[in-house]
């Protein structure tokens, strides 16, 4: 008898637990002060998706949609980062949130409509995206795996450099993506990558330099991957690169020359280097660079020039 | 010093004796010393080559550390001057967040001193390890430093540089907990057109040498040497022990030469796997750097279970406040009238007694322990050692 009773009360306990989430909702209705933070991830994601869709359709209630988007973005951001007086949500809630984001395809939707979201909202999107991207379960990075199945996200982000108002936000997200080899590989091997040669030369200085740092990250971060890529696409890459080195824009010329030096001096790119210095045209270009008025260009050109020179020294028997 | 003042007592009292009560101390003046554009601060550490002091760049207000090398001392170290020359040459070209940056080099020919101005670091990994009771880090902290070590090492290797002396004693930590690989004194730069990373010499620390060197192989793969010593370093960080030990260098090398590593089984499986890979006897099969970076234990983000091991305080200062400030203060506001103060030992003792009592009562009253340190006058017990001149009265 006693045993049965104990079992029953244990069962009851379970039942109480199972209705717990519901009772929480009741609580949130009673206490509007805490209501917002109690909204479940699924609800927030759903609300945000609806708002973004409304924004995309461009109804007359566009301002309300924009408000809703910003509000829900802040909610998601607070779940991930916490606020000044509340801690970030527990791992379980964050996992639910991530799962909802994957299932609803919201990340892509947000990025596609980034230019329609207001200024603060754009920054929130970038913050949420980067946080979700960094999420790890043991050795796995679920968001990285997710994006691998949805490379449109990356391509949309790369296209972001075409639009002034979202270029910098896309840049921060892209560089975060470039930290992961799998994602960097997709970006490097896409045709869109060659657009970077154009982006780094645009007239807006901050966008050009942001694009350049992403470009550099892609070409230097994962040594083996980059070496392989450069070897495979040597002709295409370096014919594009030539244009950067001859650019009208001083900053582009200087930056690209510096990066060229770094690439050639990296031991991983040994084969690329030998190939580059075997071409007399490249030597001529560097010698012309040594004659430039700018000291900085002379200096960077010298770094590349000395590679040619030491090869010469090796070639002659002593 | 040796003046006998009484002729009759000369044979008995050869030395002039001074009662300790009569000794008068003079507080050391913090006089500001400026070298180039840098303001000198307090001592940070000392090595066989000379001292390391803190500095402040007066133009950029960056905190720096300066390694002061004395030519006289360098000559006594085997290959000393050569190693310094090599270190300067290598560090000049390197720029990475996990490799120490050489900011400036100055030379004073009269004093035969060389000043190597570097990034400011607050501690050495070795000292942090020794400050703990079991000489090891919690797993997550070891992981945090290890991934930075690998990043720095990857950079060095891609620049064709083999460090050859990776060990906790050569890894520095900055205030924001960034690891910096330092001491490239015995490093080797490969020729740019060298087909592979073959090396012929090594002068690193014995306990961190791989079997191929312990066995006296004529040539070996340089990159794999760094992998091995990083493996020993990781072993040391997570277990507090060394994989190989020996009372003499011969016994140690014999032990390493056999190359049988015993890895404690209480470690996580992935970590054991990584250590086995890095400490593989045969350099051919030793795990290469690009695979270490992709290893599950490295990719994984370990949970912060145990408390962080802090950086040991410098002379009681846990926050590592800038030590240049008192000198600057003196330089600009130091008053001329009471700049030198004389204190006798008796006064000092009494003051100490009072401050001790105060500290005790404070402790009872408010239970705040921190107050007792800063009690009393400027010449509290901490400063006795610094009193520079003593005048016999």
UniProtKB/TrEMBL annotation, chain A:
GO terms for biological process: intracellular signal transduction. SUPFAM superfamilies: ARM repeat (SSF48371). Gene3D superfamilies: Leucine-rich Repeat Variant. InterPro entries: ARM-like, ARM-type_fold, Mo25. One of its GO terms (molecular function) is protein serine/threonine kinase activator activity. Belongs to the Mo25 family. PANTHER family: CALCIUM-BINDING PROTEIN 39-RELATED, PROTEIN MO25. This is Protein Mo25. It comes from Apolygus lucorum.
UniProtKB/TrEMBL annotation, chain B:
One of its GO terms (biological process) is intracellular signal transduction. CDD domains: STKc_LKB1 (cd14119). The keyword Transmembrane helix does not apply. GO terms for molecular function: ATP binding; metal ion binding; protein kinase activator activity; protein serine/threonine kinase activity. Its cofactor is Mg(2+); Mn(2+). Its EC number is 2.7.11.1. Keywords: ATP-binding, Cytoplasm, Kinase, Magnesium, Manganese, Metal-binding, Nucleotide-binding, Serine/threonine-protein kinase, Transferase. It is an enzyme of class 2 (transferase). It is found in: Cytoplasm. One of its GO terms (cellular component) is cytoplasm. It holds the Pfam family Pkinase. It comes from the Eukaryota. It catalyses: L-seryl-[protein] + ATP = O-phospho-L-seryl-[protein] + ADP + H(+); L-threonyl-[protein] + ATP = O-phospho-L-threonyl-[protein] + ADP + H(+). Belongs to the protein kinase superfamily. CAMK Ser/Thr protein kinase family. LKB1 subfamily. This is non-specific serine/threonine protein kinase. It comes from Apolygus lucorum (Small green plant bug).
